[in-house]
Each structure stands twice: as structure tokens, then as C-alpha cells.
Amino acid sequence: MALQSLDIQARSATTTAVPGVRETLDVAKLIDISKCIGCKACQVACMQWNDLQGEIGHNHGDYQNPRDLNDTTWTLMRFYEVEPEPDRLEWLIRKDGCMHCADPGCLAACPAPGAIVRYSNGIVDFHQEHCIGCGYCITGCPFDIPRLSKKDEKAYKCTLCSDRVAVGLAPACVKTCPTGAITFGGKAEMIHYAGTRVADLRERGFTEAGLYDPPGVGGTHVLYVLQHADRPELYGLPKDPAISPLVELWKGAAKPLAIATMALVGLASLFHYVTKGPNAVSREIEKEIEHEEEEQA
Ligand code: SF4
Ligand code: SF4
């Protein structure tokens, strides 16, 4: 079955059911951190394919540049110097970007209809023409990914190269990676391949190696093979990411409450109309107005 589909399965701030969408395979990008050499080819390929122009940065004494994701840096190599055990230094390098959550907090939080969509293949995309620049998607994202542009006040993030995937191509970062640290395909296939990588790492002494596919957000469409899967914080990843309770409240209780309040106000107005009749101007008020008009003339 084809991976390429831009059939929309879910839209932000939309209560109407989506029309029937074609069955497609869930896609996934697998990032094997143990194979990454931090060359940043993926960071450059992302900017090149998406025609993004970064600002000239400053050297902070390490290889991470720019310091953080921004509206024109949708993927960023993060460098961590850690001591997983006393006297054992490790340099961990992680490609950061949108995780394409199955249950995306950004989409749940967004109040603009259609500004955020999830395609049937699992890719979460932002449609800037509908974005109102409120930044709620940033609050809703458990991975701190979207960034607002100062130029047009719209939110931006990695698209998982939805335009390339739609025509059967792999994302630009996957295509360019010189060590094969990033692979792309059906999610089931990627999980299977990750299993072989994890087994290899365990044989090589990384007893806690494993796959990062957090269930708190329904799983993700960007997966990591981690040498220390028991401690994702070493890589700057949240241990148990989940949609914030505030967003859940907005999505769960507050929205129906607001709708119920509006319905009650409507009912009360109808009741008033039925019992009291339409608003009418009394004869005395009419006379008063006529009198004032005569005086002014
Ligand atoms: S990582 Fe953040 S921006 Fe990406 S889909 Fe998940 S919630 Fe949305
Ligand atoms: S800033 Fe984010 S939450 Fe707000 S409308 Fe744009 S995409 Fe939606």
C-alpha cells in the first residue's frame, strides 16, 4: 500500500466529521542516534528543500548552531556531553524537530479551524494561511517544537517533507544523511528495523538500548533508537510526554461547557420571547420621541 497520501484525517478546531479518507500506511522516520556523526547535513538539507534562510548566528564554543529551533530552523542538531555513569563521558547528538505525534497536542490546542491538520499517513502539518498567530500550539506541544515567525506572525515547524512524501520521495534529511542514521518507511517496518538496531547495541554493551515511541501522545511518527532508552532526558527528550491537562480541559470539559452555556442563553431568549412577546415601544415613549424631534426641528 502506498505511503503517499495527503488525505486529511483531523483538522484543528473543527467538530464536523472528516469525510471518508483512504486507508494508508502510517509512515515513520527512524533516527538511530548511535549512527549519527553530527555532520548537520540533514539540517542543511531541510533548509535547502524548504527554501529557508537562517540568520547568521554566533559561535558559543560548541557545534550547536543556532542555539534553538526557530521559524526558519525546523530541524536542529543538539549536542549533549553527558556522564551516564561516573567517569564515563559520552557525546550524544540528537536531531531535534517535530515528532509528528499520533495525538498531537498542537492540534488539540489550536483554536483556528484547519491551521493544523493530521494526514491519514500520520504526518502533522501546519497550514499557515489559516494560522492566527496565537501561539497556543506552542503551549500544547509536549516537545516544545513550533515557533512563531516575527515576519508574518504564523507558526512553523517540520512538515516531515509532506510534499515529497506525497509524490513517493523520502524526506530531504533522510535522502542526505551520509551514515544511514535516518531511515524512512512504513511505521511497522521502521519498528522492526529498530529492533535489529537495538539488539546490536545491546550486544555491544548498551544494555538499556531501546526505541523511543512515547505512548502518552499515542506514539509518534518520528522514532529514535537510543543507547540509553531508560533515560531519554540525557538527550533532552521528555520521559513521559503527554498533552498538558490544561489542553485536555479545553478539549474535554471547557468546550462542551461553553457550547452548553450558549445553548442555555438561546433557550432563555426563546422562553422570554414566548412568554413576554417581542420587544415593543410603548405609546408614551413614541410620543416623547415625537416631542423631542419637534423641539429640535
Ligand atoms: S511534536 Fe509538537 S508540534 Fe509536532 S505533532 Fe507533536 S505536538 Fe505537534
Ligand atoms: S499559532 Fe499555532 S495555535 Fe495559533 S492558529 Fe497558528 S497554528 Fe494554530
TrEMBL record:
Cofactor(s) needed: [4Fe-4S] cluster
Coiled-coil spans in chain: none
GO biological process: cellular respiration; formate oxidation
Record localization: Cell membrane
Metal-binding found in the keyword field: yes
One GO term describing the cellular component: plasma membrane
Annotated binding of [4Fe-4S] cluster 1, by residue: C36, C39, C42, C177
Record GO terms (molecular function): 4 iron, 4 sulfur cluster binding; metal ion binding
Family annotation (InterPro entries): 4Fe4S_Fe-S-bd, 4Fe4S_Fe_S_CS, FDH_Electron_Transfer_Unit, Formate_DH_bsu_Proteobacteria, Formate_DH_C_sf, Formate_DH_Fe-S_su, Formate_DH_TM
Sequence ranges assigned to domain 4Fe-4S ferredoxin-type in this UniProt record: 27-57, 89-121, 122-151
Pfam families: Fer4_11 (PF13247), Form-deh_trans (PF09163)
Keywords: 4Fe-4S, Cell membrane, Electron transport, Iron, Iron-sulfur, Membrane, Metal-binding, Repeat, Transmembrane, Transport
Residues given in the record as [4Fe-4S] cluster 2 binding sites: C46, C158, C161, C173
Function: The beta chain is an electron transfer unit containing 4 cysteine clusters involved in the formation of iron-sulfur centers.
Protein known as: Formate dehydrogenase iron-sulfur subunit
